[in-house]
Design a protein that fits this description.
Blueprint lengths: L1 H17 L8 E2 L6 H5 L28 E16 L2 E18 L5 E20 L4 E21 L6 E21 L17 E12 L5 E9 L3 E8 L2 E13 L3 E14 L2 E10 L3 E11 L4 E2 L10 E2 L3 E11 L14 E10 L5 E14 L4 E14 L6 E15 L6
Length: 412
């Protein structure tokens, strides 16, 4: 058993380096991280306009939209982790968000978003030379949220709007840890009799909110001629993860089958942001989100006496962005109609001692006369920790989004 634990501890180092918090919640995605937002460093939730659409962190922004907005996003990322001479690389692809919003005149505006809050993705096999056995580890899962939103401008203070959204949680998670037989103590002439047995620890589970259908976000937005800003509050909630554990011998016999429910208390979140407009087309923006974790996260854990919790810290993110809005006139040159973007951010992860810095460049490329655009963002940065025992991880990613604009139900 001690040799199994040694193999597991070596391999879990690789797992943690490639994807943050695999045993906990996984990697937390930026709230509503669209391709257009990624191009300006994930800032700009206070920015209004026909092509901005729904913001998960600021539902009040939706009230200022005058047209229907459809948005679909894809993300690809490559990671390179190094620690004490070891090296590991990983690539993954996901669809982090889908958004649809439409205005209703004096009745406000409604929207619907599907976005990926947390994600775990890992699949690797390794040969442990010390114990002479194979190690296979797989993680797969996501926590998705379906977010209906409503926003309305105040009747006598038209520069202000109020918005609210509900976050309905769904998703699944799984882990498969397989260790080959240990024949290191068997004489080489007798290894044929030891067989090719393996021991596997399977875990599968689903996500939901404990004792409630959703958690909620409320926001206040102000839009001025030069400056716009917002404040929002997201309620705390308890995630419930029902897990089925299956401990198997050589994929044939189930040695132990149990069910457990882990509960993760996610604290409330505060968010604010500002957008300052210069010479009509130039926008400088800054956003801040803050969430004070005060309890550790329960891990998937299970067999082989794995750690049962992941330590947490205050989770916050500061992002700075710039966008030069393209001309809305179709007869302008194509280069003048492109939205140019740039940004940077600093982030504390919910996992203790894990931090991130990053930067991005992006553009919104118009298609046709109606305002449809292809948004592209190139981002990169580094995830690191205060302790030398953790892996340093460089990452580079590409986000692509399709933003469509229409005038459904409106007179010409």
């Amino acid at each position: 058993m001690k040799k199994f634990l040694l193999a597991l501890s070596v391999f879990s180092g690789y797992a943690f380096s490639s994807m943050i918090g695999l045993e906990a919640l996984g990697e937390e995605q930026v709230m509503g991280g669209t391709a257009s937002a990624a191009g300006r460093g994930f800032a700009g939730n206070a920015k209004t306009g026909d092509a901005e659409g729904l913001s998960v962190v600021n539902p009040a922004r939706l009230a200022f939209d005058a047209k229907v907005v459809f948005n679909l996003n894809f993300a690809m990322e490559m990671e390179d982790a190094r620690n004490k001479g070891h090296h590991y690389s990983l690539s993954n692809m996901s669809m982090p968000s889908f958004n649809l919003s439409f205005p209703m005149g004096s009745f406000g505006a409604m929207g619907l978003s599907l976005w990926q809050h947390y994600a775990s993705s890992f699949n690797e096999e390794s040969k442990n030379e010390e114990i002479g056995s194979d190690v296979k580890l797989e993680y797969q899962g996501s926590v998705y949220e379906l977010v209906p939103t409503y926003a309305v401008r105040l009747p006598f203070l038209r520069s202000f709007s109020l918005g609210a959204s509900a976050h309905v949680v769904m998703g699944n998670t799984s882990r498969n840890l397989t260790l080959g037989g240990d024949d290191s103590s068997v004489d080489k002439s007798d290894t044929w009799a030891s067989g090719n047995y393996v021991i596997s620890d399977y875990v599968d589970g689903t996500w939901e909110i404990k004792n409630h259908p959703a958690y909620y976000t409320g926001a206040l937005q102000y839009r001025g001629k030069m400056v716009s800003y917002f404040f929002s509050y997201t309620t705390g909630y308890t995630l419930s993860n029902t897990l089925d554990y299956n401990f198997r011998f050589s994929e044939l016999d189930t040695l132990a089958a149990t069910r457990s429910v882990r509960e993760i208390e996610v604290p409330a979140m505060l968010a604010t942001g500002i957008n300052y407009r210069l010479a009509k087309r130039h926008n400088i923006m800054m956003d801040l989100t803050w969430r004070a974790w005060d309890k550790d996260v329960q891990n998937i854990a299970g067999g082989w006496n794995m750690p049962t919790t992941t330590e947490t810290q205050t989770d916050f993110m500061v992002s700075l962005g710039y966008q030069c809005d393209g001309s809305p006139l179709f007869y302008e040159s194509y280069w003048n109609r492109i939205n140019y973007r740039a940004g940077a951010w600093y982030r504390n992860w919910y996992v203790k001692d894990v931090f991130e810095v990053g930067g991005s460049l992006g553009g919104g490329f118009p298609l046709g006369r109606k305002g449809t655009t292809i948004d592209v963002a190139l981002q990169g940065g580094k995830r690191f920790a205060d302790t030398k025992s953790e892996w340093e991880e460089l990452f580079i990613g590409l986000r692509i989004g399709l933003t469509g604009i229409a005038a459904w139900g409106q007179t010409r």
